[in-house]
Amino acid sequence: MISKIKEEKFKVIQFIRELIVYIDRNLDNFPKKDIEIKNRLRNSSYDLLNLAYLANITKNKDKKTELLEEIISKIKVIDFLLNLCYDKEIINSKKYVKFGNKMDDILKYTLGWIKAVGHG
């Protein structure tokens, strides 16, 4: 079980890092009028990383689960923002799907991490 937890948390952090890099690489041509969306996406992705690191070092199972649930909530916010970008035609369908796949990976491994902690 210990190795399962290590695998889940390592994967979550790895996927969040990949999302941050992908956001930085693919959202550089944002319209000025929508720059707030870009800033929220970038800040939310860094919030995800912070929450994952906090969950990683937290010993209390309930607090750890709470932090992991915050990651899930933040992913939903990022998904909303990306959907908004797609609706406004800031990103194309190919990028939207790629973002979605990255977030699905984070979500899947976060849920696995919650189960491995024993609260799933």
Structure in a nutshell:
The chain is an all-alpha fold and 120 residues long. It has 4 helices and no strands.
Task: Jot down its keywords.
mainly alpha; elongated; 120 residues; de novo design (two linked rop proteins)
Descriptive overview:
The protein is an all-alpha fold. It has a single domain, classed as Up-down Bundle (de novo design (two linked rop proteins)). Helices cover 83% and strands 0% of the residues. The protein is elongated and about 45 Å long. The relative contact order is 0.18.
Largest sheet entry: none
| Fraction in beta strands | under 5%
pLDDT averaged over residues = 91
The span between the termini is 14 Å
CATH class: Mainly Alpha
- Count of domains: 1
Low-confidence region ranges: none
CATH architecture: Up-down Bundle
The radius of gyration computed from the alpha-carbon positions, rounded to a whole number of angstroms, is 15 Å
